[in-house]
Amino acid sequence: MSLGAVFTSTPPELTEEIRLTLPAVDFNIQKGVTRRLFLTGRVQTQFLQSNLALGARWAKPINNRWYVAVGDDFAGWFGTLQIKNVFDSEAYGLQNFPHASLGYQLTRELKVSARAEAILDVYYRSAAGGLVVTNPGWRSNGFAFTFMLEQPFYKQQHVSIGLRAAYSRFNWQFWSLYSTFDRSLFYPQLLFNFIL
Amino acid sequence: MKRAWFYLLLGVVSAIGLSCRTEYEAPVPYDFSDKPGSGKFTSAIRRTVDGVYAVSNGSTEFGNQVALRWTYTHDGVDTVHSLSIFSGVSAGFFSLEINQQADSLAVSGFWRKLVNASTGQAHFSLKAKRNGQLLPYTGQSLESDTLVMDGYYDTGTGSPQQKMTLTYLRPLNPAPFEIIAHRGGGRTSDLLNASENSVRIIRLASRLGAHGVELDVQYTKDSIPVLYHDNKLNLRLVQKNGLSGTINQYTYQQLKTFVRLINGEEIPTLEQALQTVVDNTELDFVWLDSKFNGPMARVQALQQRYNERARQAGRNLRIIIGLPSTEAIASYQGLANKANTPILCELDTATTRGLSANIWAPRWTLGPQTDEVNAMKAEGRDVFVWTLDETQFIEQFIGEGNFNGILSNYSSIVAYYHYTTQ
User: Fold this and answer.
1) Which of A164, A166, B11, B277 has its Cα between 20 and 30 A from that of A174?
2) Best interface-test mutation with A: which of B20, B22, B191, B408 has the largest number of A CBs within 10 A?
3) How many CA atoms lie within 13 A of A97 on its CB side?
4) CB within 8 Å: A85 and B13
5) Cβ pair A163:B6 closer than 8 A
6) Could you give the CA distance from residue A164 to residue A190 in angstroms, rounded to a whole number?
């Protein structure tokens, strides 16, 4: 289990001269089913918009330092904005993230890992007042690379710190900006979690 | 050794991440001659060509139907005619000029999809379909003839080889509807070959499907109203020049001397922009978005001067001042005389009524607001929504038929759905 925050920077194409780094609460859980198979869960929330992902991961050590893992996460996100004279809008969608990771035990206490993932859109629904649009069907949205570092923090406490470079057409955290670009935008993310 | 591995991994991931910062470009692949005159395309033929067409070749790329509409710009007595084709796919449009060298009725130019960077050349010939055969169109036709635009487009090869055939279906939807292009015609981020809020993009606006334009107005240090959207000079909008800060920190002469918009244009004064609208375009609506703090008198004076100049030229042009905030309303209320000063209010209906605004412009993210819209229209106001770019929502807003107009970065999509509505 881990609890922390993820900070996502807005691409200039969407927010133009305004540069924002949006924080979200990030909670992760993992449970071993067998020695190599794990079920995973993740909740990210900014309260007005949230994302819940469930998945599975299969990990195999190559030797006493290296391991590889493959997995797949299925995520549902939801956002709503009710602001007088500004927004009467909500949206939700489903996304899928097949991924592969490579890990390395640098020292007894320090681990590093690199992960590559594809981002697939499965379903999108958006409503403004009484008008609704939907986009069903699987389609490629983009991809992401993550570099994570896991190390001791204080006493028995460990932390993970990471950078995620997502390159996608749509990012659920920015649904209310209604991006119309059919071209991939860069979403850098900083991840910080306490391992509980 | 372990440290080396760590830095190697970090370097690889950073390199992958940073390499994702793609710089997109969509240069126009065709050199327009901008030659005045209409060649063999007489005004009668041009009127005949306007319409909704079925797409029989090229529908995968541009959809099953498109809308064709002639537009023009003029300089003095010289008029340049352009044919635009609006597609419902990916904000696609064609901009075509008359091929005056051709023996037949021919047009050539380029196509572009605004949501991405795809573009290519295109050319078409006007033909008549008679008894299943395609004949060159001469302007003389039988009642049973069907107009066909027969041509080719390319997908980045530089040589149009993909066949495209457009067959006339029906006239354009004639219902009055205001298609207003955001920032003078479109955003800089949509990779047009003209910068947002420039004179050049105002001249292009009709080709992109617009009937009107929205312009962002700010004051310089010496109180000259100019067009500029952002709060500060920044590399999103202007070429690198060493200047920073807000527009009102610089005199107009300083901006004219040192600042160029991203595509090389000068920051225009509001007067240059309105002069362009009146003297060079067929646009019938200008929405001046008040992005300034302080007195509105200079903007009002220009609004009144150019509304009058348009009236004297026989133009059906409305220049209105948009009030997006309580600060802008305070500036409006500070005017000594509010006569002949049409305004648009972006706030709620009560504020709009209190100001006796001519137009109410709510955000599209509030949805159709049918009761409020009907009430405002019953009181004699027009109602526009802004800034609506999502294709499916544009289709639905137009399908609802309640609004008088839409402000959009993608006027080509609005044009497509408006003109093809039956």
Assistant:
1) B11
2) B20
3) 27
4) no
5) no
6) 6
Q: Which of A12-21, A67-76, B94-103: highest mean pLDDT? A: A67-76
B365 interfacial to chain A (CB closer than 8 Å): yes
Coil, strand or helix at B35: coil
pLDDT of residue B341: 97
In B, minimum Cα distance to A90 occurs at: B365
The secondary structure element, H or E, covering residue B98 is: strand B92-98
Q: Three-state DSSP class for B36? A: coil
Cβ neighbours of A186 in B, within 8 Å:
20-22
A190 interfacial to chain B (CB closer than 8 Å) = no
pLDDT at B217 over 60: yes
Q: Name the closest residue on chain B to residue A91, using Cα atoms.
A: B365
pLDDT of B1 > 80? The answer is no
B390 — contact with chain A (CB < 8 Å)? yes
N-to-C CA span, chain B = 72
B44 close to A (CB below 8 A): no
CA distance A32 to chain B (A): 27
B402 touches chain A (CB under 8 A): no
Cα dist from A100 to A144, B17, B326, whole Å: 11, 16, 52
Residues in chain A: 196
| Residue A68's CATH number | 2.40.128.100
More confident: B370 or B7: B370
How close, in Å, is residue B55 to chain A by CA atoms? Answer: 23
Residues of A in Cβ contact (< 8 Å) with B234: 17
In the prediction, which pLDDT does B4 show? 57
DSSP 8-state class, residue B26 = -
How many pairs of residues across A and B have Cβ atoms under 8 Å apart? 112
Positive or negative, the Cα torsion across A117, A123, A126, A127? negative
Measured in angstroms, the CA of A111 and the nearest CA of chain B are apart by 9
pLDDT digits (tens, 9 = 90+) for B264-319: 999 999 999 999 999 999 999 999 999 998 899 999 999 999 999 999 999 999 99
pLDDT tens by residue, A99-110? 999 999 988 889
pTM for this entry: 0.94
Q: Is B325 on the interface with A (CB under 8 A)?
A: no
Q: What is the pLDDT of residue B144?
A: 83
CATH 3.40.50.300 fits B178-420, yes or no: no
Domain residue ranges in chain B: 43-170, 178-420
Question: Which residue range is the domain that position A60 belongs to?
Answer: 2-195
> Greater confidence, B5 or B293?
B293
Taking only the tens place, the pLDDT of each residue in A128-142 is 999 999 999 999 999
The number of folded domains in chain A is 1
**Is A163 touching B (CB cutoff 8 A)?**
yes
The pLDDT, as a whole number, for residue B198 is 98
Cβ–Cβ < 8 Å for B320, B359: yes
Judged against a pLDDT cut of 70, whether residue B19 lies above it is answered with: no
